[in-house]
Structure formats: C-alpha cells, structure tokens
C-alpha cells in the first residue's frame, strides 16, 4: 500500500504550517523537567519563546494512569537505563505533569503565543487535552503499538506525530492504517531511538529515508546530548525536531541527563536555523549572489602582444586572464585563426569589433 500517497503534505497549525518547504518545527519537550514546580514550566515558556522555539510539549499521564502501584519484581526497573533501580510507579510519580496543572500551562503558552501540545498516554488524558483544545497530539515511541489509543486520538481529527523509537516496519504500517481507518491522514513520523541518552553510533539518522517512504512529513526526536544529530536530520529533510529542555541542570528530574539547559538549547536552535540558511534553495541566482564580484574573480581574453592589422590570432598572442571585463575564455577557439582589422595594444581586452 502506498501510504505516502494517502497522507497529508501539509500540517496546518494556528501559528505554523509544516510542509516540505517550511522551516523546521522546533519543539522543546519539558517531560519531567519541571522538577515538581509548575513555575519552572512558565519560565521555560518565557525563555523558549524568546529564543525562537516553535512549541512546547508536555506529557499527559499520572502515575496511576500509566502503571500499577506495585512493588513486585515485574514493576522494578532492572535494565541498563538511567532509571535502573526504581519502581515504575515511583518513577512516574516523580516525573508526571499533574492533570491539575494542564489548564494553566496551556493558557500561559497561549498568552505567550507559543504552541503547546502533549503526548497522551491513555484515553482520560486525551479527554482532558480535548477540553484544552490541544492542537496536535504526539504518540510516544512506546505507545506506537497501542492501536486502541492511536485510534482514539485519530478520531479527534487533529494532526498526529508518531515517534518510531521501538517500532519495526509492521508497527509503523499498523499505526498509519489505524489513523487512515479513522479518516485522519495528518501524520508526521519521527525517527527516534528510545535510548536515554542516545549514543552517536545508535542514532542512524539515515532511517529518516525509510520513514519518507511512508509519510510526506518526517522529523527527529532527539535523545542525544548535542546538536549534531538534529542538524544531520534537517539536512536529510526533517521538518520537525523535538528535544528535551530543562531550565537548569540543578533541577532534580529523571530526564536531566539527556536534556539541554538554556545555554545549550539556545545554541541548538541557532544551529538548526543556520543549517536551514546553509541548505538554502535548489534554484539559486548566482549572478545576484556574486553581484559586484564577478568581474574580479572571472577571466576574459587579452592580447599579450602588440598586434597589427592583418595579424592572425593564435594561442601565443591571446590568452585568458582576470578580470572578466570582456569576451569569456570559453570562446577562445571561436577567435583563433581570425585576422585583425586594426592595430591592438598589449594587455588590452579582445573585442569582436577588432575582427
């Protein structure tokens, strides 16, 4: 099935349009980086608006809606992640953005004219976000296999960002099919590695080229610790980049280790914007760019000897040199063998009227 043909080529948000020729939609992910204080989210919104980020994203769940309050071994994290040694409920209790904060966050972002949206993790969080007029939803990487949730979100007819961190091709296909069945084709697929932080050798930014086969709009969910992967993704056509942001690394947060503070995030945004400038356009007017400099850096044909009327031009008496004030050197062979109809001076430019 040609999914790409059936998916939208443009995602329209109130303050932003995402499409093939748009600038990169830069999203700051707050996640657990509020440190239990809603004022940190307000301060984040102020700063992110100032430095030119396009949106702020939160996560909509509470510990009781995403896991069970159990201290059995099934709920104990015993892997190689940065969260090893914790119980799931305790982790999510610390990381959650309380539902009671949501309205204040959305209203403050609206006041500051910064797009605010969220990742819902169950139907109750979707219902809450609908009341707050959430403009776009993100399906987090681990939720790509929760087709019931995807279907519920898709039926809200809002654009959907789907992260592919744990997904194989079948997962991606099933997620898209679920959205299309719900008559929602406004999909952005994100390249993502669900490793926190992601090592450079794990990133595989080129996977974006695979995602392009499924969706017209692709992006990158960044869990690395610098801007290299994001810049690379933009070079490959990413139209959305999402990065975890923290006001200050002193804030105690489960996501601190792979989040960027104010100084780093500002440089991150600038790196992406400068990359967009460098990429430019496929069609360029080089004459316009080099206006005033072309004469100095190009060549033209000059006489290197004093010549008289009747002399024949050859490669010993006519050569190309800078500046480019006359006949271009690619026309040299047109004039070789021609006779002069007047005397010419050494180092003067060759002109058609001389022949």
CATH superfamily of the largest domain: Aldolase class I
List the secondary-structure elements in sequence, H or E: HEEEHEHHHEHEHEHEHHEHEHHHEEH
Low-confidence stretches: none
Strand order of the largest sheet: 5-4-3-10-9-8-7-6
Folded structure, characterized:
The structure is a single chain. This protein is α/β, with parallel strands linked by helices and 355 residues long. The protein has two domains: 10-61 and 96-279, TIM Barrel (Alpha-Beta Barrel), CATH 3.20.20.70; 288-354, Type Iii Antifreeze Protein Isoform Hplc 12. It contains 15 helices and twelve strands. An eight-stranded parallel sheet has the order 5-4-3-10-9-8-7-6. Strands 1-2 form a two-stranded antiparallel ribbon. A two-stranded antiparallel ribbon has the order 11-12. Helix 11 packs parallel to helix 12 (262-279). The model has no long low-confidence stretch (mean pLDDT 94).
Task: Please write out the topology.
Blueprint: H1 3-6, E1 10-13, E2 16-19, E3 25-29, H2 38-51, E4 55-60, H3 63-66, H4 88-95, H5 102-111, E5 115-120, H6 123-131, E6 137-139, H7 147-154, E7 160-163, H8 169-181, E8 187-192, H9 200-203, H10 207-211, E9 218-222, H11 228-235, E10 240-244, H12 262-279, H13 286-289, H14 294-297, E11 300-303, E12 318-321, H15 332-335
Parallel strand pairs: 3-4, 3-10, 4-5, 6-7, 7-8, 8-9, 9-10
Antiparallel strand pairs: 1-2, 11-12
Helix pairs in contact: 7-8, 11-12
